[in-house]
Amino acid sequence: MMMSRGTRKQSVVGGRRSSTKSAPKVPSLQDFLGKRDFTGALALLEFKRRNGGDDEETEGEVQTLMWIGYCAFHLGKYERAQEVYTELMTGNHGKCPPEVPLYLACVYYYMQMYSEAQDAAAEISKDSALKNRVLFHVCHKLGDEHKLMQHHQKLSDTNEDQLSLAAIHYLRGHFQEATDIYKRLLLENREDLALNVYVAMCYYKLDYYDVSLEILAVYLQTYPDSAVAINLKACNHFRLYNGKAAEAELKVLAEHGHVLQANDLIRHNMVVFSNGDQALQVLPSLLDFIPEARLNLVIYYLRNDGVEEADNLLKDLEPSTPQEYILKGVVNACMGQSMGMKENLKNAQKFFQLVGASASECDTIPGRQCMASCFFLLKQFEDVNIYLNSIKQYMYADDDFNWNYGISLAATGNYKRAEEALLLVQNEAYKAEYCYISWLARCYIMNNNPRNAWELYLKMDTSNESFNLLQLIANDCYRMGSFLYAAKAFDVLERLDPDPEYWEGKRGAFAGVFQAVVAGKAAKEDLRDVLAMVKHTGNPQVEYMTRVIRKWAKEA
Asked: Do the Cβ atoms of 547 and 531 come closer than 8 Å?
């Protein structure tokens, strides 16, 4: 019996050992941190704190809070990190580590509370490389150029300081300088794959989208589910192809388990990729966090006839990047043209010229578009044509470009090329505007296609614009010797408004048609149209004209 009990007990113990070996091991804090799994690390720390589970890894409540702040910061949960560091500074958990105010300054910086970040960093009397870097970036955000240069001079050749300098170059739009630093660091630290992303971001900003994708591929081979890298890849595809190609790239993130709507930057970009879909639902809440959100909301308003809303968004913005100058120029031009405000037009010219004449932008496509826009507003269309002609191969399918280029060509008398450019416009809203219709009608007439111009009129509803188009067709056709369509236009005008000038124009056009038929330059059938129009005229001169035409017709 004793042996039986002993055997039974040993069997039970053996069973327990077996189950212990098969049970999964709970990862430690260092396991999570080694994998950069900050979500898991934070969950573990919060659990241990709630259950009083401090161990040798956390060394008490203070260290637990320090690690919670660290993980929350790296997860972008800045409010939680702020709570933790503020709690530590109260002293309720013992002596506060001296570096905590500096960590709090970093949190404030990412929360865009720059004055608070400056004050928190100032609480540390001892200088350090991290303190200098934090204040370097804070001074940039606060626009304190004098202190910015002081902190710049304190930067060393360490990787951290050079990365900080490159970031400031990037934020200030000095993308080539940032690229040079990142590339040098990458040559010295090949194993630091994140540098490939930074270089790719710079090349994206420099409009080298193919190069950006090539460099980005190195990082994605190792980290195929990186939200930052895939988002940048999508942006490159948007620039190279279209919004659908970009959206297809973002689907990769969803397949890897990322919740796209949980990432503000991706939510913002999805609006851009979808050509403004849900812009009013997404972008307003991001104005204070993503600088591009304000610019893209302005673009949305401009595309949807919200010029005043766009102006309100930019009214207090001091432009510092080419994109901001360009949008300020566009909004001022729209305000000036729609409301007849000359001051806005002058401001638009100034903004466009600043971008187009700058050394960094003068040879770029946006830069040349800006100079063309400046000259367009000045009505110097010969200069407009020079700039637009230099970039037309890149803008073949751009409706805005073709609209402006077509009108500029027409304004300089190059009606054949103007007609070709205007016919490339595909946007139905653009094609319904009187400005487009009138310029296209003039091109048709000047290119000896008055019938096409007349058909444009026939498609219009009766309005002031259709009346103005009739006047244009009547006068331009008369000038070009297309007397039949001039007569048709003057005939309708006379019926709408019995002005003697319209009868005189119609009479001259009748004579022109008759002369062309007699000279063999027009078909005899044109006289039938003339006689039909004569019937609707009550002028006493009509009877004599009819008699002359009929007499010639019998003798011919």
From this structure: no
Handedness of CA 145, 151, 153, 155 (dihedral sign): negative
Distance CA 60, CA 174 (A): 46
The pLDDT tens digits of the residues spanning 352-400 come to 999 999 988 898 899 999 999 999 999 999 999 999 999 999 898 899 9
Q: From CA 413, how far away is CA 415, in angstroms rounded?
A: 5
Q: State the Cα–Cα distance between residues 182 and 191, nearest whole angstrom.
A: 13
Whether the pLDDT of residue 6 is over 80: the answer is no
pLDDT of 533 strictly over 90: no
Question: Rounded distance, CA 405 to CA 422, Å?
Answer: 8
Gap between the Cα atoms of 217 and 141, Å rounded: 32
**207 Rama class: left (phi>0) / alpha (psi -120 to 50) / beta:** left
Q: Which amino acid is at 200?
A: A
d(CA 404, CA 321): 24
Least trusted range by pLDDT, from 143-147, 206-210, 429-433, 500-504: 500-504
Q: Look up residue 135 and give its amino acid.
A: L
Q: How confident is the model at residue 285 (pLDDT cuts 50, 70, 90)?
A: very high
Instruction: Give CA angle at 478 (506, 524), nearest 5°.
Output: 70
